């Protein structure tokens, strides 16, 4: 194919056409926001070497619009599409507004889902007004980069798996109209599970319908044909791997099984998008969460920081056995040989141990970097405090004198470390919301509540975080709550305002500061022995959440984040490390 010239990509009666000639899309998902920008070129070259001719990406609204009317680096979308063109690939863009993607809140801003009265993913005018504003800023990055203008963009998705959520096709019509009005001339499409109710609720007349699945391609395409007798067959999400949850098992799919499923798709004559071709990492604490159970209404299952996805190109950008199986399949019948693999990015030259030099307790960090304190009768939610990723300290008094009674937190989302009169009293969760030991009055109770990831799929999408019910002493609500939030975005400006002191003698929550000296900067993984749960930054770049619950045991450090010599490390530990009697062990960098 030749990019850089104006061409026409169309949806035909039985397949896709490029300037009137049949073409099959062999695409792979790669999210620009999960890959360091300096490594986009390498990852795109890996997709080409696997035999793909196209790349697909979502666009997370919440990453780019942290507050109403305030946007940050929307230009990253355009820069990525320029890199796609430079790599010789086409592009499929999925701008939402909802994206799922195992991303915080499915890509919807928390300020939006927390806005009273607004009904997301509906024709609610308040919601659509926000979508118009957002797309008015986003589409200028996409429209000039469409294929008919010499760019790589050939298809744009309308919403995302809407049939798994709702059935308002007039809402989909509104979105399609907004895309067209914004200048999108590329082919529009929808994608849904291969079930009648999903295709009925999520597809739109006049717009290409596609299906998502991980196996049984013939059955899936038969279901699609019941709804669309004509048009191209395409699997927009071929789940060749899967994602992990904290405290769960590491998901692995046998390469031969995955290759067999891909072979079946190709034998059906269909186009395909590998989800994921390269998963990357949920840097910055942006990983979402799911709800367990058949109806996705059960216990919270937070997603880990790694989005390796058991993809053919792993989190570090390396080919796996699955890569080679797919490459063999995708190269069959080609007239020309596939390009070779690009040179691997630099890898850390030698292991290095960080030297932690300072510490500040959580209250001091909150005082330096937190938002304003509010005093209300009942606990405010994270959304009411303007907190997206991070934590909130709630403080409430138990009146006295009164004898010991159970203390329970109703509507806790998601996890609270509780202190009574300054002493750690336990950890509460949604499933275990009551302290083991009763509390007598008078007493001062602090709850440091952490958002473990907003739900990204299912009917609980958009649920609030924090203490959403109240704090009960016996059956009595405790009123008069002081609340103050610490959003992870506060660390973007640095930690110069934090009053660091000497390291604690024993393991303790708080913000640790230190340095790590690097010889031979390159891709690395960060190990955190003894750390319980928290977040890490290197040179101000947020690597994401760590948690001793596993299964993830280290964090990926992209080589461009490191520099030769001294590098700054911040570690926000949110709970006392298990068994650490002599302080928090130093983090260690290892070559990948």
From TrEMBL:
InterPro entries cross-referenced by the UniProt entry: B-gal_1-like, BetaGal1-like_ABD1, BetaGal_gal-bd, Galactose-bd-like_sf, GH, Gly_Hdrlase_35_cat, Glyco_hydro_35_CS, Glycoside_Hdrlase_35
EC number: 3.2.1.23
Pfam families per record: BetaGal_ABD_1, BetaGal_gal-bd, Glyco_hydro_35
This protein's UniProt keywords: Glycosidase, Hydrolase
SUPFAM superfamilies: (Trans)glycosidases, Galactose-binding domain-like
Catalytic reaction list: Hydrolysis of terminal non-reducing beta-D-galactose residues in beta-D-galactosides
Ranges for domain Glycoside hydrolase 35 catalytic: 16-331
Ranges of residues in domain Beta-galactosidase 1-like first all-beta: 379-480
Protein name: Beta-galactosidase
